[in-house]
Amino acid sequence: MTAALPSPSAVSLSATSTMIGRSIRLTRRNVDTMIMSVVLPLLMMAMFVYVFGGAIHTGTAYVTYVVPGTILLCARYGAASTAMAVADDMNGGMIDRLRSMPVRASAVLTGHVVASVARNAVATTVVVLAALAMGFRPSASPVDWLLAAGLVLLYVLALSWLAAGLGTLARSVESASALSFVMLFLPYLSSAFVPTETMPAVLRTIGEHQPVTPVIEAVRGLLTGTPIGSASWLGPVWAVGLLAVSFAFATACYRRRTSR
């Protein structure tokens, strides 16, 4: 009697699990990337709190104001390393070995995205603990913490898929790093470090009408009890919309690149 062949969904699930395990092992071996994804946001937070914090007036302790922005900055540093990891696979021969196998585009990229989420979870935990040591005193309830964590997770997933798409476009690890620069720069034009109303008119318009500011304001409101306003729905809508667009962009870029 001939053994039944595994279903396509079972093959896809197995391939996805294998790719996730591979990417997590690569993350564990790449200690430098893990350290930098934690150290850089910590350095930025320390610089703004201890160097610039005394000159910036936000109506509350500056460390309380800046922590939500730093948490989202972690996500962008982690996403930048995802773009470089995908570019390394795309240009290092790994993808060529998979072309003859029934592996979906989402399986390869999902491995890198899950590893990115794991790195960001570690980095975010370290940043929050450091912020508590610096004087951060959130007023969030357990439900507020869960809602904030869920919104950050959506944002991390969206950025990670966007970074994966950029990595498929890059012709080298160096060019992937350059492409991801925009993701690193955008938070500085948001309410992450200063209130947008203190910015010049043009920059204020940019800061108030981009996806980062509503997400930061929603997380800030949940953790510190400040008024959230329209960010309560704009933040999740931006995060979900960006996730959907980034996923479609990444998988389309991967299929186009591998079909050549």
UniProtKB/TrEMBL annotation:
<dbReference type="InterPro" id="IPR047817">
    <property type="entry name" value="ABC2_TM_bact-type"/>
</dbReference>
<keyword id="KW-0046">Antibiotic resistance</keyword>
<feature type="transmembrane region" description="Helical">
    <location>
        <begin position="107"/>
        <end position="133"/>
    </location>
</feature>
<feature type="transmembrane region" description="Helical">
    <location>
        <begin position="34"/>
        <end position="56"/>
    </location>
</feature>
<dbReference type="InterPro" id="IPR013525">
    <property type="entry name" value="ABC2_TM"/>
</dbReference>
<feature type="transmembrane region" description="Helical">
    <location>
        <begin position="176"/>
        <end position="194"/>
    </location>
</feature>
<keyword id="KW-1133">Transmembrane helix</keyword>
<dbReference type="InterPro" id="IPR051784">
    <property type="entry name" value="Nod_factor_ABC_transporter"/>
</dbReference>
<keyword id="KW-0813">Transport</keyword>
<keyword id="KW-1003">Cell membrane</keyword>
<keyword id="KW-0812">Transmembrane</keyword>
<feature type="transmembrane region" description="Helical">
    <location>
        <begin position="233"/>
        <end position="254"/>
    </location>
</feature>
<feature type="transmembrane region" description="Helical">
    <location>
        <begin position="62"/>
        <end position="86"/>
    </location>
</feature>
<dbReference type="Pfam" id="PF01061">
    <property type="entry name" value="ABC2_membrane"/>
</dbReference>
<comment type="similarity">
    <text>Belongs to the ABC-2 integral membrane protein family.</text>
</comment>
<feature type="transmembrane region" description="Helical">
    <location>
        <begin position="145"/>
        <end position="164"/>
    </location>
</feature>
<dbReference type="InterPro" id="IPR000412">
    <property type="entry name" value="ABC_2_transport"/>
</dbReference>
<protein>
    <recommendedName>
        <fullName>Transport permease protein</fullName>
    </recommendedName>
</protein>
<feature type="domain" description="ABC transmembrane type-2">
    <location>
        <begin position="32"/>
        <end position="257"/>
    </location>
</feature>
<keyword id="KW-0472">Membrane</keyword>
